[in-house]
């Protein structure tokens, strides 16, 4: 039960789901909250150490089956993302990119040899993965990617650049998407391959407790078995994004909840004009509106999770969730900042950090505008992308 649960939402969860949530909440309290403000300020995070700890708990690729993965439900995975992002969006991104992008791509589209090579180590947090789709000049339009893979005898040779890639500076393997004569294909690229370089992107004002990089590929020669044999066409990487966006739908609620609970505590304890801030009508109106939106977002996430567990979740439904929940979470963070006044911009409170992070979450894995067009196409039957 959380302070902002107005609708007895816990009753909608199974006992196993509540237990998984409690475990993740505890590990965030132990490993993340005491340190995350410092990580954010320094722009550094002990990602490998965190990955190993998360691996011990089965959080990496937790919704996948086999190869050391926990095989949990989509709802349980969503609850884990919520608790992780209540700590920090960057920490949730570490888990999400590892499990729902890099591991999922190999799990769904890789060969048995690729799965055996990478997935157990990634599930344990001993190997870190990244997902190379976005490029410097091609973000929302991945169909225009410039990265190319060409055949040279039995080998593949890759050239191109990927940008804004989470985990890239420390990754052991990157799932790289490239255009070939036969269309878009995916490759499991060991990061120690000759011609592969990763440069950390510095001076970020958001997601500072997350490692983000640029991957350059200069005549990178790979054996034929580096190709993901099941990945044909752009639908393959897009399906991975759908998988990851489901975690974002839940994760954004975690950041919003942390802001809202911080504002509630602050408003109750802070006295102005002889009474607690919580006793003023304008403050209560803000808190009520935010709590209502949070509960609506939770119900939306839960519905999507149940659809996913039933094998019925469609991409445009995930777009509804990502569009609504991230947008509302950012609005909640901004509104909570006003309740804290000047203290709202202090690193002693998590609200501005969450607000800054959510600016990135609003953009990555599909901007709000892209998701609006996905929903619009579903409603009208007409594509507005071109």
From TrEMBL:
InterPro entries (alphabetical): Acyl-CoA_Oxase/DH_mid-dom, Acyl-CoA_Oxase/DH_mid-dom_sf, AcylCo_DH-like_C, AcylCo_DH/oxidase_C, AcylCoA_DH/ox_N, AcylCoA_DH/ox_N_sf, AcylCoA_DH/oxidase_NM_dom_sf, Glutaryl-CoA_DH_mitochondrial
Domain called Acyl-CoA oxidase/dehydrogenase middle: residue spans: 130-220
Acyl-CoA dehydrogenase/oxidase C-terminal domain ranges (all copies): 232-379
Pfam families registered for this protein in UniProt: Acyl-CoA_dh_1 (PF00441), Acyl-CoA_dh_M (PF02770), Acyl-CoA_dh_N (PF02771)
Family matches, as SUPFAM superfamilies: Acyl-CoA dehydrogenase C-terminal domain-like, Acyl-CoA dehydrogenase NM domain-like
Cofactors that this protein relies on: FAD
Domain Acyl-CoA dehydrogenase/oxidase N-terminal: 14-126
Record keywords, A-Z: FAD, Flavoprotein, Oxidoreductase, Transit peptide
Gene3D superfamilies noted in UniProt: Acyl-CoA dehydrogenase/oxidase, N-terminal domain, Butyryl-CoA Dehydrogenase, subunit A, domain 2, Butyryl-CoA Dehydrogenase, subunit A, domain 3
Signal sequence region: none
Xref: PANTHER family: GLUTARYL-COA DEHYDROGENASE, MITOCHONDRIAL
Family to which this protein belongs: Belongs to the acyl-CoA dehydrogenase family.
Protein's name in the database: Glutaryl-CoA dehydrogenase
């Amino acid at each position: 039960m959380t302070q902002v649960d107005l609708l007895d939402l816990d009753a909608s969860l199974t006992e196993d789901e509540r237990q998984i949530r409690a475990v993740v909440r505890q590990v965030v309290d132990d490993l993340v909250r005491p340190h995350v403000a410092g990580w954010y300020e320094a722009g550094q995070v002990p990602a490998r150490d965190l990955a190993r700890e998360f691996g011990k708990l089965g959080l990496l690729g937790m919704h996948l089956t086999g190869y050391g993965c926990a095989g949990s439900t989509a709802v349980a995975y969503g609850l884990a993302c919520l608790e992780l992002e209540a700590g920090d969006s960057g920490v949730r991104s570490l888990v999400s990119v590892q499990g729902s992008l890099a591991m999922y791509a190999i799990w769904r589209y890789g060969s048995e040899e690729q799965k055996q090579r990478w997935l157990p180590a990634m599930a344990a947090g001993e190997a870190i993965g990244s997902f190379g789709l976005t490029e410097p000049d091609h973000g929302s339009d991945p169909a225009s990617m410039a990265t190319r893979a060409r055949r040279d005898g039995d080998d593949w040779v890759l050239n191109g650049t990927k940008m804004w890639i989470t985990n890239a500076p420390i990754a052991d393997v990157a799932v790289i998407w490239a255009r070939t004569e036969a269309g878009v294909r995916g490759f499991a690229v060991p990061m120690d391959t000759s011609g592969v370089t990763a440069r950390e992107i510095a001076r970020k004002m958001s997601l500072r407790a997350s490692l983000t990089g640029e991957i350059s590929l200069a005549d990178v020669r790979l054996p034929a078995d580096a190709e993901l044999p099941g990945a044909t066409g752009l639908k393959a990487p897009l399906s991975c994004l759908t998988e990851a966006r489901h975690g974002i739908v839940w994760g954004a609620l975690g950041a919003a909840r942390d802001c809202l609970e911080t504002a509630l505590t602050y408003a109750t304890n802070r006295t102005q004009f002889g009474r607690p801030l919580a006793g003023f009508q304008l403050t209560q109106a803000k808190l009520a509106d935010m709590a209502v939106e949070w509960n609506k977002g939770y119900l939306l996430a839960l519905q999507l999770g149940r659809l996913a567990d039933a094998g019925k979740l469609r991409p445009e439904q995930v777009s509804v969730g990502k569009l609504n929940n991230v947008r509302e979470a950012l609005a909640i963070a901004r509104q909570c900042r006003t309740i804290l006044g000047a203290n709202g911009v202090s690193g002693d409170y998590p609200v501005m950090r969450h607000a800054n992070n959510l600016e990135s979450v609003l953009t990555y894995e599909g901007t709000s505008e892209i998701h609006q067009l996905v929903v619009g196409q579903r409603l009208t039957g007409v594509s507005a992308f071109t």
